[in-house]
Amino acid sequence: MNAVTLHEAPLVRQDSMAPSKLRVRVQSVSYLAEDINAFEFVSVDSDTLPAFTPGSHIDVHLPQGLIRQYSLCNPSTERHRYVIAVLRDPLGRGGSVAMHDVLRAGQIVTVSAPRNHFALSNSATRHVFIAGGIGITPLMSMVAEVQRRGEAFHLHYCARTPQRTAFTGALCGLVASGLASIHYDNGDPGKGLDLKATLQSRPDGAHLYYCGPAGLMDAIEAASGHWPRDAVHCERFSASGSPARTKGDDPDTPFEVELARSKKRLTVHPGETIVDALKLHGIEVETSCCEGYCGTCMTRYLSGDPLHRDSVLDEDDREEFIMICCSRAKSASIVLDL
Ligand code: FES
C-alpha cells in the first residue's frame, strides 16, 4: 500500500512560530516504485509536527552532513507525520543515494520546519497540475487539498514507465473519474503529454502548477508563455536549462555587502558569490543546491538593488528577499539582514 492516501480532514495552517529544526524519527520506509521509496517521519519530542501548507518542502539533514530538500507529499491536514518520496539517482549529488542506502526505520534525523515557495492559489477557480516523474510529490499534497476544498482540477502525470511511477494506487480513483491522467513516454520526450495542446488555451480563472526534471520544466515554461505570470507556479529540483544569468544580465561586477546585524562590510568580487564572500570572512550560512532553486539560503535584504538569479522567488518575494548563493547586486552595495 502506498504511504500517502488522499482523504478529507480539517484544514490546518502553516505554523510560523515553529522551531527551525526538528528531531524526527524515521517511522517507516516503504517501496513506491522502481528506485522510489517513501520516508515517513514523526516527531521525537511531541505528538504533532508543525503544520504545513500544500507545496511545502523540508530540509533533511543526512548523517554525512548533506542537507537536501524534499517536498511533503502527504495531505497538509495531517499533523502527526511528514511524508516524502525520494527517487534514488546514482548520477545526482549524493543525497538521494544516502537517503536510500543509509536511512533506516528507527533512525533519528534532523529536518527543518516546512517552507513553501510553491503555494496553491486561493483565487483560482480551476487548478491544472503537471508532474514529471518524482515531481509528483508536492502535487500529491496539493491535489489532496483542492479535493478537500471541492475545487475543480486536473492532474497530468508524466512518467517513463508504469514500473517507475509512484502513487499509482493512490491516484487510480482520480484516473478512473477523469480527474487525473498518466502519460507514459517510455524514455522518448517526443511521446507522452502534448504540452502545446494541453496549455494552448487557459480556462477562465485557471492556475497552472508544475514540477519535474529540468527538460520538462523548460518545455512547460515555453508552452505556457502566454498564460498570465501570476497564474503560473512551479518548483524546480534542479537548475533551469536556461539559467537566469543568460537572460540579458550584465557580466559580474564587484559590489559591497553590508551585514546589518553583525555590522560587517565585505566585497563580492566577479566570479564569487555572496556565500563565498561570507565564508571567506568566517561567516557560515546554510546552503544546499547553490544554484538558486532550493530556497535554503533565502536572506532578507534591507536596501540596495539585487540582481536576482534564482528560480524560486516570485516578484513579490523579490521585493524583500535574495538568494545569496547565486544572486548579486546591481547597486554598488546591498544591505543584508545578517
Ligand atoms: S542554496 Fe539553494 S537557493 Fe541558495
From TrEMBL:
Tell whether Metal-binding is among the UniProt keywords. yes
Gene3D superfamilies the record matches? 3.10.20.30, Nucleotide-binding domain of ferredoxin-NADP reductase (FNR) module (3.40.50.80), Translation factors (2.40.30.10)
User: What is one Pfam family matched by this protein?
Assistant: Fer2
Q: Which UniProt keywords apply?
A: 2Fe-2S, Flavoprotein, Iron, Iron-sulfur, Metal-binding, Oxidoreductase
What InterPro entries does the database record attribute to this sequence?
2Fe-2S_ferredoxin-like_sf (IPR036010), 2Fe-2S_ferredoxin-type (IPR001041), Beta-grasp_dom_sf (IPR012675), FAD-bd_FR_type (IPR017927), FNR_nucleotide-bd (IPR039261), MRET (IPR050415), Riboflavin_synthase-like_b-brl (IPR017938)
- Renumbered to this chain, the signal peptide range is none
GO terms (molecular function) for this protein are: 2 iron, 2 sulfur cluster binding; metal ion binding; oxidoreductase activity
Domain (2Fe-2S ferredoxin-type) ranges: 255-338
Q: Which domain of life is it from?
A: Bacteria
The FAD-binding FR-type domain covers 19-121
Q: Which PANTHER family match?
A: CARNITINE MONOOXYGENASE REDUCTASE SUBUNIT, NADH OXIDOREDUCTASE HCR
The protein in question is named Oxidoreductase
- Which source organism? Trinickia soli
